[in-house]
Amino acid sequence: MAQTEEVLFAREQEDSYNEQPPEIQTDKYLIFSSDGLMYGIKADLVKDIITDYAITYLPQVPAYVKGVINLRGQIVPIIDIRLRLGKPEKENFCGIVVEVEGNMVGILVDMVEQMVDVPLDAILPVPTNKGQAMVCGMCTLADGSTMLELDCELLLHE
Amino acid sequence: MGDSILDMYLYETNTLLEQLDGILLAAEEADTFSEDSVNEIFRIMHTIKGSSAMMEFSSLMTVAHRIEDLFFLVREKGMDIVPEQTRPDLFDMLFQAVDFFRGEIEKVENEEPLSQSIDHIVNKINSLIDKIQGNPGPSEEAPAPAEQAPAESASEAPAAAPAAVNEDYLYGIHAFFDEGSGMENLRAFMLITNVKDYCSDFVCSPDNVETDPSTADIIADQGFFVWFRTAEDRNAAIPGVKNAGSVREYQPVDAAKPAKEEPAAEAPKAEPAPAAPKADAPAKADAPAAKPAAGQQQHAKESLISVNLAKLDQLMAVVSEIVITESMVTSSPDLKGLRLDNFTKSARDLRKLTDDLQDVSMSLRMVPVSGTFQKMNRIVRDMSKKLGKKAKLTLIGEDTEVDKTIVDAISDPIMHIVRNSMDHGLEETEADRLSAGKDPVGEVILSARHTGSEVIIEIKDDGQGVDTQAVLNKAIRQGLATPDHDYSQKEILNFLMMPGFSTNTEVTEYSGRGVGMDVVKKNVADVGGTVSISSEWGKGMTTTLKIPLTMAIMDGMEVTVGDSMFTIPINSIQSSLKVGSQDVIHDPHQGEMVKIRDNFYPIVRAKDLFCMDKGRENIEDGILMWVEAGEHSYCLFVDELIGEHQIVVKPMPNYVNSFGVKNFGITGCSILGDGSISIILDVVNVYTAAHSAF
Questions:
Q1: Judgement on whether residues B282 and B158 belong to the same structural domain of the protein
Q2: What domains, with CATH codes, occur in chain A?
Q3: Which candidate from A57, A61, A69 shows the least CB-CB separation from B563?
Q4: Is residue B333 reached through a cis peptide bond, with omega within 30 degrees of 0 on the bond before it?
Q5: Of B101, B215, B512, B617, which is the most exposed, with the fewest CB atoms less than 10 Å away?
């Protein structure tokens, strides 16, 4: 991450409380990249960030379900978000384990970037029809890039 | 009022009602009450009365009280005083009363107001009491039981008159609490606290009321004594006693005198005059009588504790982790090639202990299905009366133990299916049954048994069975089936489990609302089970629930296919064998078979079934696992045999199950010693999947 960006992020995190009136509520988001896009997941859904786990292949599931891993005794299915969104597969393994509706699911992403605070009202609705699949909100970050909020429930249910 | 007290009350009352139901069913069968069961009912009613009064549920208390009165008579005079012709009424009334209690308890649980109109049931009880006593006039019955009491208490009255517990404290107050108020020891403790406000120098008897609940019975029985040094102290303390809650009556007693007495029967408060020794208040006559039974019961109860299920879940999870971690330690790659005699010995001991630990923690969650099964007795009884169909329920394998969560989940489905059998399954009239050459009394058989990894519960009736044509017609009418398609018997029966499907045209009290089998199917599916129906027209219908043992431990054989590990349950494996390609017989559909001991068995290649990239192709390179489960017997072709392990079955995550992997024989997974995951195969479903694929 470029240095200027880090400064900007730091400002976003630390100063938001001081400069803005306290009634502006923010949510923490974990930002990750996949196929050149920045996605955000609500941080309280995130249970773990994993690398280098042996994935056990599961037969008879869609290709985007890469298999299951043993996360401290829990069996967690792993979804490759690239395949899930119909993008080409890429060899890497960095996963975010999220808990959605009581189910733990790991999401394979290109890279986990950063945590940010996003004011609730900064999340804008996705324009209909042209919207990115599995996205339930959009938001412009302090560095000018756009974060797409991943709809984790949609990810599971389709 | 503390929630814990309420919880305790609900738990206790529910347990008692279940017990009562059981006694009543047994008694109805025998058409009489044994002495034991009379005592037991008496005791149950007494407890319900007492605890309900304490919780201020007056409707419950009143009904329980009347039944107690009734059984008081029965107990005194024996069952013979109940004329033959009134016995059915008696049983009906008791069942009604149990239902009434249940209803009220449910209201309490839901925090709804209790019903006030109990006259109906109370009148019924009263008229029964009249009949038993041969008293036509209803005015008599109320005092009647009370009149019986003194006579009875004469024999059972507390033997010893109170003796002073300490020579220095001779001036006593003898107090009685409200009849049936329950928790007398705590009330006594409150009384002591009250008295302390007026005078601090006293002793009491029994003296350890706040710590020893068993004193409650003694106090209920003999009253509670507070002893003072001087008469002045005693007089000063009287207001304290008077103001303490629930004190029915009290009187000063002097220990110096040989006979310290209680007031006559309905003495108002603070009557100092000594009375005859035997006259324990009549209303209390039940207390000593109930005591022997209560004492036994209490003893049994004290060895049981109720534990929050969540804690057991937690325990189970930790134990399975320990088992896995243990094998990680003992089979650690760091130990390879080392000769460690002491370590190996300790590891073996550890293994044995963790095995025990696992068994024990598993058994904590296991409860017999008998509780659920027994409830069905009641349903069959009620429905056979209501519908005028004679029927009996046969229970098989009641003591089969299953996980508590499963018991809870299958209770409603079983009830529903039993109702269906009674309502639609059994023939309308006895004549119908006789003309079909059957026993006029219909039979519903409820059975439970374990197979290796499943509990199988069967509900079977010998009724008319399912009219498949009618079912099909209805399915077509409802648009569930297409008219010009040939459906197999099994497919037609499956329509019964479609949402909104009911063959009965009329809605009855019990079934026919069309919210039936689909709900059953859903409930069973929630615990990972399946429902199947089989039926033969004219012979009856069998509904089978197959439910996997969640969190089960089982012995499995590890095999590999390509890079993946699979576990096959040991109990479905017949043997493993190596064959050459010349032994494989091909059929016209590219199917492969092998001949083992004069029989041909199909070969299922795991690699092909699971569409795996790696894995052995040549039949010589791999190994055949001859497996058998249910009616299927076949050979599963895998790469290598690793060995036998005891594994902890972990269910597949819900998300994975939503892709229907169960249908391909993937029932769960287990974590191996090195932390890797092995997939557990269900032999039957592997076969069905393979069969439908070819």
A1: yes
A2: 27-156 (2.40.50.180)
A3: A57
A4: no
A5: B617
Considering only alpha carbons, which residue of chain A is nearest residue B681? A59
* Residue B325 belongs to domain spanning: 310-365
**Per-residue pLDDT tens over the stretch B267-294:** 444 444 444 444 443 434 343 433 444 4
**Residues B58 and B105 occupy one common structural domain:** yes
pLDDT of residue B163: 53
Helices B286-302 + B143-156 axis angle, to 10: 70
Nearest to A19 by CA among A113, A114, A117, A115: A117
Which pLDDT value is given to residue B464? Answer: 83
Domain match, B402 and B424 both = yes
Q: What's the token pair of residue B539?
A: 């012979």
Q: Encoding tokens for residue B642?
A: 């690793």
Is B673 a domain residue?
A: yes
**Distance (Å, whole) CA B45 – CA B61:** 9
Of A68, A70, A104, the CB nearest to B675: A70
Mean pLDDT over all residues of chain B? 75
Whether residues B648 and B561 share a domain: the answer is yes
Whether B294 maps to a domain, the answer reads no
Q: DSSP 3-state assignment of B70?
A: helix
ipTM above 0.90, yes or no: no
Asked if A61's CB is within 8 angstroms of B656's CB, the reply is yes
Query: Of B141, B175, B196, at which residue does a domain stop?
Result: B141
pLDDT at B559 over 90: yes
Instruction: Write down which residue in B141, B174, B190 finishes a domain.
Output: B141
What's the pTM value of the predicted model, to 2 decimals? 0.46
pLDDT tens figures, B46-94? 888 888 877 778 888 888 888 888 887 777 777 777 777 777 788 888 8
Whether residues B677 and A156 touch (CB distance < 8 A) is answered with no
Structure tokens at A38: 């920045």
